[in-house]
Records
---
Amino acid sequence: MRLKLAPGLAIKNSTIEGKGCFSVAHCRRGRKIAEYTGEKITNAEANRRASRRRLRICAINNRWSLDGSRGGNGTHYINHSCEPSAYMKILYGRILFIALRDIKPGDEITIDYEQTLHSNKKRCTCGAPSCRGTINKMQR
Ligand SMILES: [Zn+2]
């Protein structure tokens, strides 16, 4: 299946991990970058699929998730960073990416995953000065 990218996005090799999602346009702070798309699955199914090495699943609520590896628009390549350029906002069952700062063409779009289906031991390789060392944010 050919990947249909959301407008304004490009997929390129990332210095963080594997391939990443990059902006090809200017995006002002606070503006929507794109919407996350994918196959709608139950969270039980999401947990079953979590054993895959590359996880492209994003939770909408305590019942549903989207799996961007099927029907994703490029936003499923957005990498984690401890100093992200964007954040995820869930609005009426839709998952939106909003710019945390002004984004220039060529900038990698990153978010702080905070909680994933990955183990809490999974190391972070984002390289940010304030990197916390793991992908998941530990609950205190
Ligand atoms: Zn990090």
---
Amino acid sequence: MKRHALAAALSTAAVVAGAAPAAPAQAAPFGTTPVSPSKTACGKAGFTDTVRCGAALTETFLRSRKAQGVVRETVIAPPAPSGLAWPSGPGVGSPFCGYADLPPILALGAHHCDRTTFILPRTDKERLFTDDVAATAVLIHESGHGMQEARGVDVVIPSLTGDSGRQKPMELSSDCWSGVGIRYLIGTGDLPAAAHGEASALFADIGSPADTLHGTGPERKAAFEKGYADGPAACNVIAGVRAFR
Ligand SMILES: [Zn+2]
């Protein structure tokens, strides 16, 4: 979809949702439900606890890198039809941020912008948030986009316009960042050793030859393993910008 068409779709969506055009800077975006991160939710079954666990472990990892501010909060996007876009806050590389679930036109699944990670249960629940390890691997990937935005990278427009030359390095470096995080959390005992293989298999599984923005399964798995083995510096090489530390 072209940028202008998308902007039009999002503003139409805002009207559909009956929403104000701008969201407040420090509260959950209009219509979304904030997730309360909690390590006590780890080990429990069910979507909500799985997301709460993943968000808490992502926070633990980000804090260890002195980067907790890149994810202000994790939120559940409202059910379809819904959508809203707003200008990003200061210091964020993407010019605007938003969420949208307008089947069959548009569905923005798990994504990150303006220091907020969005989850769309309709598309993400069965695919990405199957257990604590998967949820953590995915939410650390999303926090990688927060690291990029904090370095002035626009991760929104290339994604929406299908500019794979710009977006794919951002996606693979976030997969790499997930490898850094999963290794850290195994080291702290927050995740079992088996989380390495499980998360690696997840990225292999969700990659697709048809997905020119995120990469093939082998590419995504290799990026994850690179971060796991070599740390944040390897992710910067993939990104082509010093976003990770
Ligand atoms: Zn991504």
